[in-house]
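It is worth pausing here to work through a concrete case rather than discussing structure prediction in the abstract. The textbook approach is simple: state the sequence, then state the predicted structure, then interpret. We follow exactly that order.
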Amino acid sequence: MLTETEKDLSASRPNRVDHDRIADLHFLGNYVRRLPVTMARMMENAHDWEHLPYVHASSFASIDLISRGPWGWRAKIGLPGGSDFQLVDLIIDETRHYWVSTVFSGMGTGTEIHTQATELSGDEIEVDVRFYLPEAPADKTVADFVLKYLIDQYRVLYDEDLGLMSGRQSALDYRTRRRAEQSEPSFILVGEDSELDRRVNHIIETKAGRFCVRWRRDEWIAHSAVCPHMLGPLEDAVPDEKGTIKCPWHGYRFDAATGRNLDGRCGGLTAAPRLWSRDGKLYLANGIE
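Step two, the predicted structure:
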């Protein structure tokens, strides 16, 4: 919940990047990095507020959205430890591939992170992350400490984001490739029933998508290995005692047996082909009712 003061602060914030303001800020330093991803995935990632406490759990404990739009997003963020919060917005200049993240309340108030993304090739970009404060610290030692902290944090954030962005691109490429294929067998072999390891998940690729076949409560079940929200990986999600699996990217929850979304935040999982046992072998009965 936002306090009245926090509501007023949030309502007063601009929804566009003011590039002229940079001249009034103190430049601490920057962090430059090449990333083997497309510009589309990078800009998608900038808009993606939901992934922060899941992909970046060491930096963000929670996030509660205040507002969002084509301009970016604004949220109240919980910091690790459970007691401190920040109000943060991330404002995007889409045409320039530029965005500004500002802490406007809480620890680090006034800190601004300006990022310029530049396309180097079809599948590689460079980000120049520039750190600003409202004014210069009185002590150079403090300035050096803050700069080192921010660079170390953003190095970790991009390490973690790279897995999400690369995984998303791989999922999109896979979906496109599978849709282009002409046909596939009606029965897709999972394996010899007596030899299948019940301790691991078995991933089966079909034209309809990737599916996970797993042993649960003395029977084999099958469910989509891909979250319908942003194609996050579900093959390693461990069902809880109720059979709920959770996407590691954004925390969306699904019933593994039925595929139903339990959050009301997106649609259900792609329906899995029926499992079929014949002659000691386990199959996915693709297209067989």
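Step three, interpretation. Residues 187-285 form a domain with the Rieske Iron-sulfur Protein fold (CATH 2.102.10.10). The radius of gyration is 23 Å.
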